[in-house]
Each structure stands twice: as structure tokens, then as C-alpha cells.
Amino acid sequence: MTEPLASSQLDQPSAEESIQGLITQYLLERVSEFRELTDLRRKGWDNPKGDAFFKKQRQNADKPDKKTSEWFFRMMKQIAEELHTTTGAFSINPSCDRQPRILDFCMAPGGYLHTALQKAPGAEALAFSLPVSHGGHEVYLRQTQRVECRLLDVTMLAADMGTDTIPASHPEVDGFIERQLQPTDRFDLVLCDGQVLRTHIRPEYRESQEAVRLHTTQLVLGLEHLQPLGTMVVLLHKLEAYRTVAVIRRFCKFSNVKLFKPSKFHCTRSSFYMVATHVQSQHDNAIQAITEWKKMWNMTTFGKKEDYLCHAENAKKEEYLELENFGPELVRLGRNIWRIQRDALAQAPFIRNIH
User: Fold this and answer.
1) Radius of gyration (C-alpha) of the chain in whole angstroms
2) What architecture is the 71-164+187-200+207-334 domain classified under in CATH?
3) pTM recorded for the entire structure
4) What share of the chain in percent tops pLDDT 70?
5) How far is the CA of 243 from the CAs of 20, 50, 313, in angstroms?
6) How many CB atoms lie under 10 A from the CB of residue 306?
7) Residue partners of 91: CB distance under 8 A and separation at least 6
8) 71 falls in which pLDDT band (50, 70, 90)?
9) Does position 62 have pLDDT exceeding 90, yes or no?
10) Is 141:107 a contact under the CB 8 Å cutoff?
């Protein structure tokens, strides 16, 4: 078995080494599933049929007809069922003095929330979803008094993110949205499964940082309004990416973390879910994480790109210093995620037919 990184390696990184490269190398040396997955990815990149395969998937997702949209809704319900069976994510302990509440970001088409409400029959939900007129998906969740759905772009919730004054020079100065969550609002379960949509109609200046803005909005508002010992379900991508590792590492400091990847759907993709249970939302480490993510949202919304890039470089250094300590836990949590994607890619037509 490979020995841990020597402290001298951590103290004196060479100029050419990036934290991303170190994480990748760390995993290649220790995790056979990740090594095999990496080889399959290379084969896929070298095969034009792989590009065609994923291009067709993107087209179906971006411009679905009614039949495809309904199938997508059913698929998300099936994924949610498997997630709950595997992790118990939607189990909400009833309280005698209040009604359980669920907060769902980027809810459409509504399959996840549908299943969560089934597993918690007494719960009510507040859900946000990007309007179809702005490029969002259609909502297929049946309208009910248990769900309040607000159609808006959550990345524009400046007041909720702690910013009450918008610079007059900002290109969307009139586009920010008034506060949606009161400081006392608390939820037992928070679903953070939004991702940037290619169909989303937004100004060009937002393109490069939109993923960071959406991700940090969900993390901040989800954790800030989570009932102590509640649960968060967070969609993440590419487990070995340093930003992904950073989020998981932070949550491990104040919650119980499990990782889940569906066994049938989206298996060839790098996406997966982090399920954080018994979240100590008032813990010092949780408050520190919220502060850090708010700073990132502010930088990508109001700051200069250079400032964010400088901030990101400092964050990379922190992950570099944490790699030796968190590496074994990352391997333990991630092995099954890489195994599922490896097995799916091995059976993909653009890999299987390579001679």
C-alpha cells in the first residue's frame, strides 16, 4: 500500500504542481476503481463517438418534448426512491410542537420533492424553480397546499445572501430579488440539486462564474436555514475536483456524510449526491463555511474576476495542506462512486466497441 504523502512534500510544493494534480495523483496511487475509471475516460475522450453520445444526451435535456419531460420526471422519482432506500435521506423525525418543513432549490420537474413528501407525509415544502420563460424546466409536481412554489432565479437573492445595497453600476442592478426567507425560517430537509442550465437566459457577463454562484447560493441558504440536526442533499460533480473535495471536507466537520450515485441513471456521468445528516448547522465550522461561501458569491456577483481567481488560488492552497489528513476519508467515501461510473462507462457503446 502506498505510503501517505511526506510532510516535506506538503510544505514545499513545486511551482508546477497544482492541488488538482495532487488530488488526482493521490487517488491514482490508492484507488483501483479511480485508476480504471481514469483509463476509460481517456478512451472516451479519444473516441469521437463519445462526444456524439453525450451531445445527444445534452440535446434531449435542453429541448425535451412532452413525452421526454414526463419520462425525466419519472426518472427523478426513481432516483429519489433509490437515494432514500440507500441513505434514508428523506426521513424526518416528527416534532410534537411544529410541522416538518422541506426547502427545495431548483425544484423542476419536481420528482425529488414528490418522493420527499411521500416519505414525510406531514411535511410542507417551499420550493424555488427557474421560470420556463427564463429557460427553466416545466414543473410536473401536482399542485397541492403542501407545496409553495416560487418561480425565480435563486442566484439573484442578494438580500437573502446578506447584501442589501446593490452597486448602481451593476449590469443587473434592478434584477435582484427581495428577501424570500426570514431569519427565523428553519427547514428539516434541504434539497440542493440545482445545476446551471444551458437553456437559462442570462447576461453574458455571468457565464464564467454562474456555476459558483448557483452552488454557493444553495449551500449558504440551505445551511443557514437548516434546523439543527437536519439533513441536506447536495448535487455535486466530479468527486476528485478540488472544489468538490472542499465541500465534502467541510461538511464532514459538522455532519455525518454519505455519498450516493444512482445505479441505473446518469451512471456514465460524474454527477453524484452528498447526503449530510445530523447537520450541526450552528457549529462554528458550519458558520465559517457559510461566511466563506457568501464571500465567494459576492466576489462572483459584484467583484472583479481577478479577485475571485486570487481567492480561488488561496483556497487551493488550503486543500493542499488538508489532503494528507482528509485523503483516507475521501477514498472511503468515494470508492463506490467511482466504481459505479467505471462499470457504466465500460458498458457504454463508445467504449465497448473499441477494438
Assistant:
1) 21
2) 3-Layer(aba) Sandwich (3.40)
3) 0.87
4) 85
5) 9, 26, 11
6) 8
7) 84, 119, 120, 231
8) confident
9) no
10) yes
